Amino acid sequence: MEFAFPPPKFRLPDNRLLVALPTRDYLRLLPSLEQVTLRQNEILYECDGPMRYVYFPEQSLISLLTYLEDGKSVEVGVVGNPGLLGTYIALGGRSSFHEAVVEITGSALRMKADAFLAEFQRDGIFQRKILDYIRCQILMTSQSAACNRVHLLKRRLARLLLTIHDRIGSKEFPMTQEFMGRILGAPRSEVTKAAIRFRQGGLIEYQYNNIKIVDRRRLEAIVCECHWVVAEEFDRSFPRNIPARFTVMPGRAQPSWQRERASRISRTAKLTGISVASCDHSCVK
Ligand SMILES: [Zn+2]
Question: Which of 125, 132, 175, 230 has the least C-beta neighbours within 10 A?
Answer without folding.
Answer: 125
